[in-house]
Amino acid sequence: MTDVTSAEIGSRSVPLSEAGVGDYWALLKPRVMSLVVFTGFAGLWVAPGHLHPVLAAVAILCIAVGAGASGAINMWYDRDIDAVMNRTLGRPLPAGRMQPNEALAFGVVLAAGSVILMGLAVNIPAGLLLAGTIGFYVFIYTMWLKRRTPQNIVIGGAAGAFPPMVGWTAVTGDIGWPSVVLFALIFFWTPPHFWALALFRSGDYQKAGVPMLPVVAGPRETKKQMLIYTIVLWPIAVAPYFMGIAGLVYLALAAVLSACFTAFAVMVWFDRTDKWPKRMFGFSILYLFLLFAVLILDSVHGRFIG
Q1: How far apart are CA 83 and CA 87, in angstroms?
Q2: Which residue in 1, 9, 62, 228 has a CA-CA distance of 20 to 30 Å to 281?
Q3: The domain 19-174: what is its CATH number?
Q4: Confidence (pTM)
Q5: What DSSP string runs through 220-235?
Q6: What are the tens digits of pLDDT across the range 47-69?
Q7: What does the domain layout of the chain look like in residue ranges?
Q8: What residues contact 210, with CB distance under 8 A and at least 6 apart?
Q9: Under DSSP, is residue 29 helix (H, G, I), strand (E, B) or coil?
Q10: CA-to-CA distance for 238 and 254, rounded, in angstroms?
């Protein structure tokens, strides 16, 4: 009879992980995280009051880690559909470089650590809001909405809209109306941004059984909804000026960028190829980045020059 040690049994039942540092970094969805951190910083920067630079850095770190944790848990849960979609085949889990339990443990530890650190080092309301943001993305969007309704990205988009509110609360200790406007800006920006991607990736979503709007309602209805959302964005985009957290430079740029965003949606409406959806997707990222960048710069001008 062959003598088999418990270590050998363990190694047979649980394959050794091939994951490297790059795979753990990929789990954090760094491109998504960078936009989350940027908008979170904007909320922190324009908020009234003062937060010690060290605590401000801690708050931004917690927002970044919380966003990364959400991405890791999302990849753990979605590993089955990621293995079907061309866009996500190379991720660590569907590629077989990492075990599911590793990704889940990594995400849970980061999520808990970011919330606890935010609550203890900055303030409890910011910690609770960060916890709600992570929970919304994981349980409401990823586990409930994404595979059940074509409105998944509309409702679930709230998770990506919370960071400026978290940044604001880190400074003030409460949720102010200007932070709600920044939340609304990202919330209403998300559907046309993501549906532009879904239009030229609809085959992937159809294979994976994800009921994105282009798959369920068709391209025409999706394009109509995208156009409507870009128009709804107009008053929301210029609202920071009227709420006193941005100046005339921001107001002018917000009006011009919003007009361009709508123009892209019009071009998508008439386009029968993937050309304009791809262009609109790229512009949508630039749109949000420039709005928040000018919001920050406008605030800098107001603090140190105005």
Answers
A1: 9
A2: 62
A3: 1.10.357.140
A4: 0.90
A5: HHHHHHHHHHHHHHHH
A6: 998 899 999 999 999 999 999 99
A7: 19-174, 176-306
A8: 81, 146, 147, 152
A9: coil
A10: 6
